Amino acid sequence: MIDLATLLIVASCVAVVLAWLVPRSWAFDIVALWTMAILAWLSWPTALWLALVTLLTPLVLQAGERTPFRGAVAGSWAAVLLAGFVAAQVMVSQVWIGAAFFTLRALHVIGDWWLGRQAAPGLRAHWRYQLFLPVLFVGPIHRLPHFVRQVERRRWDPADFAAGAERALTGLFWATVFGEYLVGIARQQLLPHSVGPQDFAVDWLASVLDWVALYFVFAGLTGVALGLSRMAGLTLEENFDHPWRARNLIDFWTRWHMSLTSWCRDYVFTPVTALTRSPVAGLFAAMLVVGLWHEISLYYVLWSAWQAGGVLINHMAGRHLPLHRVPDLARRICAPFLILGWLSLARPVIVRLLEIVQ
Amino acid sequence: MTPLSRLAARLLPPALRIPVLGLIYAAMLGAVFLASRAEYGQIIYVDVRAR
Q1: Per residue in A339-355, pLDDT tens?
Q2: What are the extents of the domains in chain A?
Q3: Domain spans of chain B?
């Protein structure tokens, strides 16, 4: 039986074909219709909710432009979208596809409108933006103005098409061969098979392997999404910038899932820092959004605090420890291991903490 | 030019470039097919939520 991820990738390939077969002025409207048809087939709640979000967001913002209460309009509509996102997380009896990604895209549109960075989007531009299947279920969280520019400038280029196809194939190779198969073998060889309470070191090692698998699968699938987008003529925002080259934890978070971290920087960290005059409050708020975006649970609240604490320790160590005396080569070699060690240590520590509390 | 074809252009004589690239792509596709049939797990980072 074909799994859902494979079906979505195949349907995204069909979207690429449609983008070139249909006359240019209609191409992305037809792709949007195709996206709706696929969603309606695989998950009617997603199709219904996304259709409402896609159609109502421009109408609400256009109506908001005629009132003096822009803040109230933006806040109320953002609250409705967040309620939908929470419902998608809670109603696990239904299949939800891409809710985490399209909610943040819609909040970006509302946020930029409220801040006066862009006018209320047209219905058609927003429809094309939200309903672009290749990036719907795996990101990146691309931005509306960039997407509109890309659609306008799009032209057929065989070299671009080939580069996109190669990127998509390479991404699929990373996700399945490295992320699933090889890490799967490593898991089988390195971790004990017995079920039951395991020691801390085993849990930590399992967490390390999960982070490695996550990198290959997530970066690989993002590569598939960006490759297919490029085949359709659109160069969208990157999501990873060689995170293993990060020099420290702060640098890591500017290289990992960049479209999410830049979203949190623009719509959480900067406003919270400006309001509270405290970058630490901004950091904890931004990390909390990153955590709850993955899952609304106490585990992810603690996970957010752990990761924000890591960034804070990193910042203080940079200021107070004589790290500049450590040779550059040694820092470059040690940094990825220290970063991976900190990221993966979160799970065994938090799980044990929750066991004690509960 | 794609990244792999740039690499092929740098390392291989012209007559070998297309066959070698074809072999690499075929090998990648084959590896994806074989790896996805193994029972090591499923793609975990697609944003699909359901029980």
Answers
A1: 999 999 999 999 999 98
A2: 4-153, 158-230, 243-357
A3: 3-36
